[in-house]
Amino acid sequence: MFNKQELIEFCENARSSYLDHISIDCVVFGFHEGQLKVLGLKIKNEDSWYLPGGFVMKDEPIEMAANRILKERTGLDEIFLQQFRVFGDPDRARPHHDMYKDVLPPEENWFSMRFLTIGYYALVDFVHVNPTPDGHSESCTWYDLTDLPDFKLDHAQIIKSALDTLRLQLNYQPIGYNLMPKEFTMPELQKLYETILDKKLDRRNFQRRMLGFGILSRSEQPRKGGAHKAPYLYSFDLKNYQSALTEGLKGGW
Amino acid sequence: MFNKQELIEFCENARSSYLDHISIDCVVFGFHEGQLKVLGLKIKNEDSWYLPGGFVMKDEPIEMAANRILKERTGLDEIFLQQFRVFGDPDRARPHHDMYKDVLPPEENWFSMRFLTIGYYALVDFVHVNPTPDGHSESCTWYDLTDLPDFKLDHAQIIKSALDTLRLQLNYQPIGYNLMPKEFTMPELQKLYETILDKKLDRRNFQRRMLGFGILSRSEQPRKGGAHKAPYLYSFDLKNYQSALTEGLKGGW
What we know:
The structure is a homodimer. The first copy, chain A, is α+β, with helices and mostly antiparallel strands. Chain A folds into 2 domains: 4-169, Nucleoside Triphosphate Pyrophosphohydrolase; 181-247, Arc Repressor Mutant, subunit A (Orthogonal Bundle), CATH 1.10.10.10. Helices cover 33% and strands 24% of the residues of chain A. Chain A has 8 helices and 9 strands. The first copy, chain A, has helices at residues 4-17, 62-74, 94-97, 155-169, 175-179, 186-197, 203-212, 238-247; strands at 18-32, 35-43, 49-50, 53-57, 80-87, 116-123, 137-144, 216-218, 234-236. In chain A, the strands form 2 sheets. In chain A, strands 1, 2, 3, 4, 5, 6 and 7 form a 7-stranded mixed β-sheet that branches. In chain A, strand 1 (18-32) and strand 2 form a beta hairpin. The radius of gyration of chain A is 21 Å and the shape is elongated. The model of chain A has no long low-confidence stretch (mean pLDDT 91). Chains A and B meet through strand 1, helix 2 and strand 5 of A and strand 1, helix 2 and strand 5 of B.
């Protein structure tokens, strides 16, 4: 939370820099050890979690704004980022409107305004990013989708809507490519699909279909170590993947 | 175009009623005689066409705003309407900013503001609607997608993006159900798919797959009239259709 002086300065700067009424919130997905995870910011001195979000500068294209906000608030840069939905319920940020009501009158308080927020989802390779909190946040951490902390405003709903979008876009966007490490086993890929689709899949069918798409390359070397037969490692053939996605992964009409 | 007095009144009313910076534009699709069509408004005394659009009231949920705007500008009501994308290029409405520059100074002119527009697509049964222009418009008419007039601002791009969305959502949204008349022949349905996908489909494969989904009911009576063998008529079994769409039409994983 801001103290009074910080709030006054923030609001003055916001009024001169940002468009009224519009914000951006990002749902950043990562996948690790069989779990789909989402990035949350814990605000300093509050038991409150938020998605990384922010405002759009007066002359800034919204895609640039989304990238800038994500970098400022989490340190993440140059990652797969897709707009997916506007959340426009007039009451969605009601708790925010009252937050500083004893500190500043509503007409001077940026947070008293109604905001529509544009939801973006981002996909990252978990092991290659290092989320870093900004100055307002105590931490910027991964949370299992099955065990989320208390996200404020409508942020839990935004996360759910982003996950629904992943499910619908699984055949049309390079979701596996962006979430998986460079090399992975077939059971690891299957686990990602099962998590997004929220259901168990048949191992043999999954492998047969995945290989049938012609989008995976198998490494010469199986994974080293472990007591059992070493599993094969796969990676995405990006060119074939992109070309298959234009028709939809399950084949065109 | 507004004259000066009309413009002053419109801007005063807009400032007190609407949220700054946010507009809504609707791409209304209809399908008739093998052509996918889109609804355009021709502005009075201008050679300018626009999508039916408008602004969001200060306390109005955006879904309600989209429905209200569509009704006010085209007379259409209670139709299938889906948000699909925000268009947020700062220069997207530059021609509008200058439109009244000799009539009102920018700080008093509502149209000088930057607007992000939320795109909605609508699907209607062509033969059951009667588009009616509002007071600003000379006409509200269907145009073939292959032969569009000169849509202003970024509206041609919004139409293209809506069509891309139809293509991606063909297996997940009741697009056929909302665009086709109650009863139709298999070649008519195939033509709709071909138009949305922008490619020819094999007749026998299409029929086999469509029937395989179990979402069509065949009428007892073939279509009457015509010199040739009368074709069978089909209608959607809405319950089966909805249930198949939750998994995606081509079958779940």
